[in-house]
């Protein structure tokens, strides 16, 4: 689809200073003439794309061009990158490649200001399938008493607290201690409501 190709061309140009029409044509399985029409379409849409002739020539974007102002606010881009980082820590290792690409788009190497924590949970058999559905199997180990330990690095945010609470009495926070305290406080608040 043309719109997907146009967006991917912009993404490629954001990640590389210059790319040739032939490289793009080969990548998308279209002719160089089609790529030049795509470049014209991007230019007409206000994307600051230009071409240079010669041995070191090719297609480029203006150096300071980013997509975050056109598509997403700073807060939205940070939220998107945080979500992808969380996915990468779970069972989506390809999220790291997407984070790198989007980091270039947003001209932002830091995904968020949230601190990373090494979360350690001990869970019962009743929720082990949820652990495997959510996290990479390398993060999970089985204990002699048929419980499971989860050790994973995540950005500390509401998702972490909600996930732990969703496991109910089938999970215990081993560390860090401040997460354990937050879960205790929230569990007491839940009990008070009922």
What does this structure look like?
The protein is of the alpha+beta class. The chain folds into three domains: 2-61, Arc Repressor Mutant, subunit A (Orthogonal Bundle); 68-105; 116-193, no CATH class. Helices cover 51% and strands 16% of the residues. It has nine helices and six strands. The chain has helices spanning 2-15, 21-28, 32-44, 68-71, 74-89, 95-105, 128-134, 158-166, 177-193, and strands at 49-52, 58-61, 116-123, 140-142, 148-155, 171-175. The strands form two sheets. It has a four-stranded antiparallel beta sheet. Strands 1-2 form a two-stranded antiparallel ribbon. Strand 4 and strand 5 form a beta hairpin. Helix 5 runs antiparallel to helix 6 (95-105). The longest helix is centred in the last third of the chain and has 17 residues, at 177-193. The radius of gyration is 23 Å and the shape is elongated. The chain starts with a helix and ends with a helix. The model has no long low-confidence stretch (mean pLDDT 78).
